[in-house]
Amino acid sequence: MRKKLAVALLVPTLIAGTILSGQVSASAAKDDAVIVKSVKFRDKPSLSSERIRFLQVGEHVNVLERVNPYWYKVKDGQGQTGYVTTQSRYISMVGASTGEETTQTAAGAANNVIKAGMKYWGTPYEFGSNRSNTRTFDCSDFVRQAFKDGTGIILPGNSRTQAAYVKKIGKTTTKWRDLKPGDIMFFMSYKGSKSSNYSGINKSAQRITHNGIYLGNGKILHTYSVKSGGVRIDSIEGKHWEYRFVFGGSVLK
Predict the structure, then answer these.
(1) Position 1 in a domain
(2) Is 0.70 surpassed by the pTM of this model?
(3) CA-CA distance, 173 to 181, in Å (whole number)?
(4) What is the DSSP letter of 175?
(5) Residue 81 burial (10 A CB sphere; 0-12, 13-18, 19+)
(6) Which residue from 111, 127, 221, 252 has the fewest beta carbons nearer than 10 Å?
C-alpha cells in the first residue's frame, strides 16, 4: 500500500516538473491538409474503430478540428467525414502556421507517454518478455508499451530496431542534457561504473543494448533487470547511465 501511494504522489510531481500539461482543446481548424503517406481514414478517433478507406498520397482533406493530440476530424474530397492521425509523417497542413500547436501537441503526447509508463511502476523484468501482455517487461517492451498506451504509436520490437526507427524519423542528440521529456534514450553495454571505463570508446559504433524514457531533470523511466525490481526511475548524472548513453531522440512530431 505504501509503495502504491508513493507512486501515486510521484507521478503528478514528475510530470508537472518536467513537461506541459498537454491538454489540447478541440478547436475548429478548418485548414487544408495533404496526405503524405497512405493512412487509414476511420469512422471514430480510435485505433480500434472501423476503417472507412485508405487516404492516398497527394489527396487533400479539410481539417475540421483536432479532437485530441492524436486525431484530426477531417472531410475528404467526396464530402465524407472521418478521422485521421495527427502524425506529420502521414498528414501535412497546407499553408497553416502550426508551429506552436505542434509544440503543444508534442508536449501533450510526451506527457501521456510518461503517465502511461508510470502505470507500470514495479512491473517485473523479464528478458525477452511477451509483447502481447503486460505481466512482465524487458526494456524495449516497456518503452513500446508506454508509447502504444500513451499515443497509439507502435514502435518496433527491440532496442536496436527502435534506435534505428528514431534515427530515421527524428532529430537525435548524443548529449543527454539536450533531451526533452518523452524522448527515448539508448545505451551501450555496461562496462563498469566509472567514467574511465568508457574512455576511448567510439560509442557510435557500439551495439545498443538498453533503452528507456527520459523524464527530464536528469531522470530516466525504464526497466533493466530482475534484481532492480522492474519498472523504476533512476538518476543519470554521474552514474553508468551517463557514461553508457549513446544517443536519444523523439518519435513525436
Answers:
(1) no
(2) no
(3) 13
(4) -
(5) middle
(6) 127
Count how many domains the chain has. Answer: 2
- pLDDT tens digits for range 141-152: 999 999 999 988
Nearest to 184 by CA among 201, 198, 164: 164
Its domain, for residue 35, covers 28-98
Amino acid residing at 98? T
Residue 75, phi then psi, degrees to nearest 5: -120, 130
**pLDDT of 128-169, one tens digit each?**
999 999 999 999 999 999 999 998 888 999 999 999 999 998
244 is a domain residue? yes
Whether 186 and 211 have beta carbons less than 8 Å apart is answered as yes
**Inter-helix orientation angle 2-18/99-118, to 10°:** 170
Q: Grid coordinates in use for 199? A: 574512455
**Section 177-198 average pLDDT:** 97
For 98, counting Cβ atoms within 10 Å of its Cβ (0-12 exposed, 13-18 middle, 19+ buried), the class is middle
> Is residue 249 within 8 Å of 172, Cβ to Cβ?
yes
